[in-house]
Amino acid sequence: MDQLQIGALPKAVLHEHLDGGLRVGTVLDLADAIGHRLPAEDEAGLADYFHQGRSGSLERYLEAFVHTIAVMQTPEAIARVASESVEDLAADGVVYAEVRFDPGLCTREGLSREDVLEAATDGVARAAKETGIDVHVIACALRHLDDSELAARAAIHFKDHGVVGFDLAGPEAGFPPDAHMAAIMRVREAGLGLTLHAGEGDGPHSIWRALALCGAQRIGHGVHVADDMPVVDGVLTDLSPFARSVRDHRIPLEVAITSNLHTASYRDAGTHPFGPLYRAGFNVSLNTDNRLMSGVSVSGEYALAAEAHHLAVEDLGIITVSAIEAGFGPWPERRRLIEDVVKPAYGIN
After folding, report:
1. What is the pTM of this model?
2. Mean pLDDT over residues 149-155, rounded?
3. CATH architecture designation of domain 3-340
């Protein structure tokens, strides 16, 4: 099963960073318009710079965002990036998507967080109408900064206008999610979905804090829940009590294999725990994280998982259904996609 075959199948993505998925040509255009100096002047050179396959750590991987964020400081630029992101996902066969970013990073030229989210949701809505994709926005704050309450307020303001969730992203080590409980309680009380980055750059304890202390409904990455557990015939065995609770409570883990390889969490796709987690019954989805920095598409991520972990078409269908079930968008539309689009395409009863 190659990427071309997978490209024709309906797919879902829950973990896609807006500021990590720009088109290279758009970065060049926007940088030229504002006089921002880039590390390369042509598409090939800039694409090579942005590709973080050799970064070797989460912290170094995040350094490339300096330039994408720099060109996302006007409503027009933000709306364009959001619209193009949706167009690219739809062209890749994605039928349900949630894209996320920190609006606070786009306020350097005087925009408010509300201005930023208005531009992003307008761009998303325009492209969604044109393509037919069901797509929503998740507002992020960064764990190492102290402005999460401002991000939470802005997210709540757009709760019924395209924003469906809240996230804490950025470096994990030394920045626990429960340090942002005021923001977390605000979004939970408002009824927004809560998905927190955890278990990407830190171990299982980070995931425990996100779930037990913060009440996260989904975990961004979460793959280190599998740490120190043996794999027998491609299945995790002897689950820890905490890992068993993550599996049995059906906590969705937003897995991004390629990104995990680029941040040196695992040495190759074959040793990544996605397959063992799936076969052990964990609720896992396939995600791009950052299409630009990781040089990956949703179809490419599906193809990589299928090849490295011997997944059949039906497996990919089950994973897609689980992802849409875990989404924060309105349930009637998600149910329609599952029953009328995804299940028939994958031959699932």
Report:
1. 0.95
2. 98
3. Alpha-Beta Barrel (3.20)
